[in-house]
Write a structure and sequence with these properties.
single chain; alpha/beta; four-stranded parallel β-sheet; 7 helices
């Protein structure tokens, strides 16, 4: 029986330099737009990927859009799931048009609200002088989600945005369950927040890595053993779609499990 590994990328397969253990070897894995390496794999991560590739079909599952995914220097050969599940790429790098046909009408319907949310967030950031960069991520011409990062990785600034401005969008992602719906307003109930380190995202509920993983399993990989590998609470729904799951020790997800003991 074939094996498929659905593999999250950032903070699972590689991470920024400050997050790398200083005593381990490091290999550049992803690059910024200027060509400088900004994410690295440790020797253990390299070996884990090699082990997967020897015995399984490896499918990256990431929040990265197509531009950011192309700056990952890992030679994936199968399908890929991008944009929190908004885009599925075929092995030749072309979009899966059947999946795009499902996502595009929903993305276009949510576009106006996403732009309004972005403007609201940017006004709050400027008013509070937080120095956070906020932008709306597009792919294949579709508005998909909002991402916020601080250039100096000031997570307190992101916490202020979340607590003081986005409190209506703060559903906690409980382990083993889908995100609860929020009844604050008809518009805001259609979004949830994802945060992990210096990354805060506002994501429409029609997106979700788990939806794309289910689609890929149904359409492309019937009757397989599936393994999900991820690091964050927002990965839980897609991990639950798989027969087995893995997580890095010390990850957000591992820490949450430890706290529940």
């Amino acid at each position: 029986m074939r094996v498929c590994v659905f593999l999250d990328l950032d903070d699972t397969l590689f991470q920024t330099l400050p997050k790398c253990p200083p005593e381990q070897e490091r290999r550049p894995a992803a690059f910024d737009r200027d060509g400088a390496p900004n994410s690295f794999m440790t020797g253990k991560q390299v070996r884990l990927l090699e082990m997967f590739e020897q015995s399984a079909e490896v499918i990256p599952v990431t929040a990265r859009n197509l531009d950011a995914f192309r700056r990952v220097r890992v030679p994936f050969c199968s399908l890929a799931i991008l944009d929190f599940g908004g885009v599925v790429l075929r092995p030749d790098g072309s979009p899966d048009r059947d999946w795009e046909a499902r996502i595009r009408p929903q993305a276009e319907a949510a576009g106006g609200t996403l732009h309004a949310l972005l403007e609201s967030v940017q006004e709050f950031i400027a008013r509070q002088n937080l120095g956070v960069n906020a932008r709306l991520i597009h792919d294949l011409g579709m508005p998909l989600y909002i991402v916020m990062k601080h250039p100096d990785a000031n997570e307190d600034a992101l916490a202020r945005i979340r607590a003081e401005h986005l409190s209506a969008l703060v559903p906690k992602l409980p382990f083993g369950n889908a995100p609860p719906r929020n009844s604050v307003s008809p518009d805001l109930s259609e979004f949830f927040l994802h945060q992990n380190s210096n990354n805060l995202s506002i994501v429409p509920r029609f997106l979700g890595k788990e939806h794309a993983v289910a689609y890929v399993l149904e359409k492309h990989f019937a009757d397989v053993i599936s393994i999900g590998v991820g690091d964050s609470l927002s990965d839980v729904p897609f991990l639950r779609r798989c027969d087995f799951l893995m997580m890095p020790s010390g990850s957000q997800l591992a820490q949450a499990l430890q706290a529940d003991r």
